[in-house]
């Protein structure tokens, strides 16, 4: 049910070819966490602009659905699908880079998007550290490792990296998740500093709430997703909750040469929620968790 809700989105938001803003033909992208949500929207949009893409995630069925969308928007260009779990399979980061380069011959864009949280949000939770290692392995370690592995390929293409962080790195939210995303922001800045001289740009996108299946990693029952996003909507400064394509639009801009002067940036994309700082934290979450 969850996948149907979040995949239905793509049936309504595919842009017509007349809306093409960028030309990514000849470019190759690896987007992690692209079997659903934000990563899927980015992979689809990059493909629409002509890039060849590698998509990856744990759910083979969803991955296949996104691959079909990609073929639809790109006149039949096939995505490379790689199934795997970044918290379990230590060989996966190398496989993602190697297989992408073997299949497509180069790498231009690395989007470190796969991420998760834990259901335990506060220091008061006795289980707080239960998911800590997995969250940090996925949100932090995999980003560093993929950056390191992608580096020589991106140097050749003068490519760039986009890390999907969160407003939770700026506004304190849940201790484990927020601190992992604060680490992502610093990975962006340190990598940008080190890789700038190689001609590689590195930027973060920090979304506010976006309508995806993300709540599942926080223990939110999928049947409560709609209620959760409806309650967020009223609290957003702009009274709208983000859609995956909002984030994909910024990712395409950052990947493109229009952003040639931008590196090391932490780019908030949040319907103004940080300005208003809605209280969608602990209490709301506790109400809707299983
Ligand atoms: P989704 O749950 O829809 O997507 C998460 C993606 O990451 C899926 O493709 C999932 O694969 C993949 N993934 C999760 N865990 C693993 C793992 N262990 N190994 C490999 N892949 C994994 O959520 P979003 O699209 O919302 O999340 C994308 C990014 O956006 C995350 O980094 C998140 O922190 C960030 N973000 C999201 C916000 C939101 O409100 N939605 C707000 C701010 C930031 P699969 O489904 O196949 O398991």
Task: Write up what this structure looks like.
By secondary structure, this protein is α/β, with parallel strands linked by helices. Helices cover 46% and strands 12% of the residues. It contains ten helices and seven strands. Strands 3-2-1-4-5-6-7 form a seven-stranded parallel beta sheet, sandwiched between helices. Helix 6 (175-195) links the parallel strand 5 and strand 6 (201-207). The two termini are 17 Å apart. Residues 8-13 have low confidence and may be disordered. It binds NADPH dihydro-nicotinamide-adenine-dinucleotide phosphate.
SSE topology sketch:
Blueprint: H1 2-13, E1 28-31, H2 37-48, E2 52-57, H3 60-73, E3 80-83, H4 92-104, E4 109-112, H5 132-157, E5 160-164, H6 175-195, E6 201-207, H7 225-235, H8 244-255, E7 266-269, H9 273-276, H10 282-288
Parallel strand pairs: 1-2, 1-4, 2-3, 4-5, 5-6, 6-7
Helix pairs in contact: 2-3, 2-8, 4-5, 5-6
The structure holds NADPH dihydro-nicotinamide-adenine-dinucleotide phosphate.
NADPH dihydro-nicotinamide-adenine-dinucleotide phosphate is lined by residues 33-39, 57-59, 62, 85-87, 113-116, 138, 164, 166, 207, 209-210, 212-214.
